[in-house]
Amino acid sequence: MSWLGDFEAELSARGVRPAVRARLLAELADHIACDGGAAAADAGTSACARLGVPREIARQYADELAADDARHGAFAAFAALSCAAVALVVSQITLGRFVGYPGFDHGFSVALSLPAIFAMVVGPQVALIGGTLAAWRAIRRRRATVLAGAEIALVRRRARVGLAAGVVTMSGLLLYTADFIGVVPAWWTALSGGLGVAAIAALLAARRTLGQGAQTVVFASGPSGDLFDDIPPLRRLRGHPLALCLSGALASGTAVTLAEWHAEHSLAEGLQRGIFEAVALTVGFALLGRAVGARR
Amino acid sequence: MRAEALKGHLDGLILATLANGPAHGYAIAQLLRDRSDGAFDLPEGTLYPALHRLERAGLVTSAWSTQAGRRRRTYNLTRSGGGALRERRHEWQQFASAVEAVLA
Q: I need a labelling partner for A120 at 20 to 30 A (CA). Which of A13, A296, B31, B36 fits?
């Protein structure tokens, strides 16, 4: 087999995507042609001395590509989630300021409004955690040429969790919008529906970007790192997942209680929402804590 | 010079080569060898992964062109590539003068 054929086989074995592979091979074919083709007539010692060992070059290339793809995917996910956040905020602010929030039982059915509201309350928090942690790791490791396979998997998992939660949130918004058609003005329905659809399109595009290079086989080994590497002040809670979960639940529950108490002028209502928040965070930690690197 | 010794400096050397104008991979390899009097005779296959890495980082751009009937990829330094090159030169000068001070 020629050096080029050997290199192509190595790139294929490492899952380097066809378009990238084709370009790299075309450039090397031109290089070999410039050189008179002598160096690459076979995959023997002289070709390897001149061009390098195909397996080593392919491995290095695949590792670097996978690291860049994972970072790129994390940034794309964060950007799409930011668009979704804007869509949610704009729809809710315009509803509150210009229309007034309808009661949850004033739409077609509470079977629509309750899941919609649940998705719009819980989804953004999961999306914020998953998307931010993915982007933060990508920023922290932006100068690393190669990332360990486990670390790449963690970045991808965080971004996937964020994107899935973003889609759930926007689906909730669309469900909410549909539930209150006829109760709210048509302009708000159009605005909220349009923003929801656009945000879902952005999230799906980001999912596609994140999927790019997912087949690449990474050889670089090492630990994935965890939440405590990303947020050093939390390090004293490493190895104590229950303490981490309870601290988070207490902090977020208290914050929501105080905010709602202030907004609704009712301590009872504040407590009700604060407890819901704390329970939701605990359930979220149990379900997704491992996926985002918050516990082993 | 051994390829391992070049590893940490390859990106900077490629950027410096492209500072003189656009070039394709083979020309870059030749320029590196010529300008170093043959000292930088690296395995040429390793040059392309480095060029792709620099492109993904936005430090170079590339485009296919046809020269003498042959289709080839020509690389160009970007504005941020120029900035990165200045930074690497500065770092190298500091490093070299520190080593010189110790060795001398």
A: A296
pLDDT in tens, B13-72: 999 999 999 999 999 999 999 998 888 878 888 899 999 999 999 999 999 988 777 888
How many structural domains are present in chain A? 3
Say whether both A30 and A112 belong to one domain.
no
Q: Domain B3-103 class? A: mainly alpha
Cβ within 8 Å, pair B43-A64: no
3-state secondary structure of A109: coil
Beta bridge partners of residue A276, listed in sequence order: none
The whole model's pTM is what? 0.88
Owning domain of residue A119: 68-225
Q: CA A295 from chain center: how many Å?
A: 18
Average pLDDT rounded to a whole number, residues A63-91: 97
Cα angle at B68 between B63 and B71, to 5 degrees? 35
Q: Over chain A, what is the mean pLDDT? A: 92
Looking at the domain assignment, is residue A59 inside a domain? no
CB contacts, 8 Å: B29 with chain A:
31
Q: Which residue of B has its CA nearest to A146?
A: B53
